[in-house]
Specification:
33% helix, 9 helices, 12 strands, 343 residues, single chain, Aminopeptidase, alpha+beta, 2 domains
C-alpha cells in the first residue's frame, strides 16, 4: 500500500515569528498528549521565555517541518552543551501521530546530524519511553531512534507517586526510622539555596554524573560550581518554575551532606518532578537519603495544595534509590531508553 507523501518546509524556530511559535507550541501539545498522555501539557511561559533566557551551559536550536497550511508536522530540537561534554548533543524529534512514516522524522534527523557534525559534535543522545508489562506505551520514538542507528546505553524507569492515595502514617514511620539513624544532622528547607551552602550544593550536584549509574553512556563529569548553580536557579525562576529543596546539615562540620529537590512548572498545579537526591559518600549509611526525601515531599505538599502526582526517574540498576522511592509509595509507570550514537 502506498504511503501518501507530505509537502513541508523546514524552518528554524527562534521565537521571533510569533505565528510559527504558536504552531510549534500547538504541535508540542498534540504530540505530547498522544505519546505521554499522563504528562502535563507543556508550559507556555517556559516555552516563550527560553528563547530569550537560555539554559545555563546549553545552546538550544530548533527546526520545524511546516505544512503549506502553516501547521507544524514535525519538530527537531538540538541541545548542545557549552561548558562540558563539548563533543556531544541531545536530539529530540517529534512528529504528529497521524503524519508518521512519511519521511518527516528521517529528514529532520539528517538535518540535525549534518548540523552537529558541522559544529564538531560527534555523539548524540536521545531519551524515549517504552512499555512495561501491563502498561502499554506508544514506542514510535524508540523504534525510530533504533532505525536511525541509535543504541540503548542505560535503562531507566519512571515511577509516579499518587498523592491522593499517599499513606501519611507510612511517611511518618519512614521519617522516624531514618531520624533514629541520623543523629548529629539537622534538616533544612529552602526555595532558593542560601548563600552559605552554595558550594556544598554545587559539589553534590556535580557528583551526580559520577555517583549515579551511567551504564554505557559516554558522559564526562559536569563542571558545577557555586556561580553556575546560582545561574541555574535564576533561569528556573525566570521560567516560573517552583522549586522545593530539603537538605541535611552535618552539625559538627556545618556542611550540607545530603540534598534533594522537587520542581513544578508555572502552568501546572497537580503534578511535579522529583529531581536529584544525593548524599556525600562519607556520610552514607545514616538514612539521609530517605530523611531528606520525606521531608521535602512534606514541604511540597504543604506549599502545593493542588499537587496530585510526583514523577521521578531512576536507573533500573539503582536499587538503593528505587527502594527508597517505592517505600514512599512511588510505583512504576513506564521504562525509558537512554539512546546514544556516534556520528
Amino acid at each position: 500500500m502506498a504511503i501518501e507523501t507530505l509537502s513541508f518546509t523546514v524552518r528554524p524556530v527562534d521565537g521571533t515569528d510569533h505565528a510559527l511559535s504558536d504552531a510549534v507550541f500547538a504541535h508540542m501539545c498534540a504530540a505530547g498528549a498522544h505519546d505521554l498522555p499522563d504528562f502535563p501539557p507543556p508550559c507556555r511561559h517556559r516555552f516563550d521565555t527560553m528563547f530569550r533566557v537560555p539554559r545555563v551551559g546549553h545552546e538550544t536550536r530548533r527546526w520545524a517541518a511546516v505544512t503549506p497550511d502553516g501547521d507544524v508536522a514535525g519538530l527537531l530540537t538540538l541541545d548542545l552543551t557549552t561548558i562540558d561534554n563539548l563533543d556531544s548533543a541531545e536530539m529530540e524529534i517529534s512528529v504528529l501521530p497521524g503524519l508518521r512514516r512519511r519521511g518527516i522524522g528521517r529528514d529532520l534527523y539528517r538535518l540535525g546530524v549534518d548540523f552537529l557534525r558541522e559544529r564538531g559534535r560527534r555523539r548524540i543522545f536521545a531519551f524515549a519511553p517504552v512499555s512495561l508489562p501491563g502498561a502499554p506505551r506508544d514506542e514510535a520514538g524508540a523504534r525510530f531512534a533504533e532505525a536511525m542507528g541509535m543504541t540503548n546505553a542505560l535503562d531507566d524507569v519512571r515511577r509516579r507517586l499518587d498523592v491522593t492515595t499517599l499513606d501519611r502514617a507510612v511517611l511518618d514511620t519512614l521519617a522516624a526510622e531514618a531520624r533514629a539513624k541520623a543523629d548529629g544532622y539537622t534538616l533544612l528547607r529552602w526555595r532558593r539555596t542560601p548563600e552559605e551552602y552554595l558550594d556544598d550544593i554545587a559539589y553534590l550536584e556535580g557528583r551526580l554524573s559520577t555517583d549515579a549509574p551511567m551504564g554505557d553512556l559516554v558522559w564526562e563529569p559536569e563542571k558545577i560550581d557555586s556561580s553556575r548553580l546560582r545561574a541555574v536557579e535564576d533561569v528556573r525562576e525566570a521560567y516560573g518554575q517552583r522549586t522545593f529543596s530539603a537538605a541535611a546539615r552535618h552539625d559538627a562540620s556545618g556542611r550540607i551532606v545530603a540534598w534533594t529537590f522537587i520542581q513544578q512548572d508555572a502552568s501546572v498545579r497537580d503534578q511535579a518532578w522529583q529531581g536529584i537526591t544525593i548524599v556525600r559518600p562519607d556520610h552514607r549509611g545514616h538514612r539521609l537519603g530517605m530523611l531528606v526525601k520525606v521531608e521535602n515531599l512534606r514541604y511540597a505538599l504543604e506549599a502545593l495544595p493542588g499537587l496530585r502526582h510526583v514523577d521521578t526517574w531512576n536507573a533500573a540498576a539503582n536499587a538503593h534509590m528505587i527502594g527508597i522511592n517505592e517505600a514512599m509509595g512511588f510505583a512504576p509507570v513506564d521504562a525509558w531508553l537512554n539512546l546514544q550514537q556516534e556520528i
